[in-house]
Amino acid sequence: MTEKIVSVKKDEVKIWLGFASQVWSSDMDYLQEAFLNDQFPYEFLYWRAGKALAWLSLSIRKEYVEGSSHLPLAYLEGIAVTQEARQQGIAQELLAFAKLWAKAHGCVQLASDCSLENIASQAFHHKMGFREVSRSVHYILNVD
Known about the structure:
This protein is an alpha+beta fold. It is built from four helices and five strands, in the order βααβββαβα.
């Protein structure tokens, strides 16, 4: 079997949306439009035997990120593996790809985040070797 990690093409936007919707709560029409307008330039699909089994979203951040010590900084925006392809080492392959990608883009750190209640994502990050650097709760007040 041949596996490959390749950039998402515009004609694969529906596949991309299927993965992105598992991770992000944004409006799908907005995401599709943003993707088609090149606002997500570092999106990748993991293919095996003609089937997309996983997705990886990366970015480069130039502003300070909690816990970082170097800029620019590679950022893991999202990652998802189909249910039937889990526990096969695909996430590890994607993370290895992300690290090489980060180095190729002049970054020495890869950062990520998840919500406080997303225990599965926290476990994934710890398993992959990420170090927790902070926790935060955000507030808002309407000023009518």
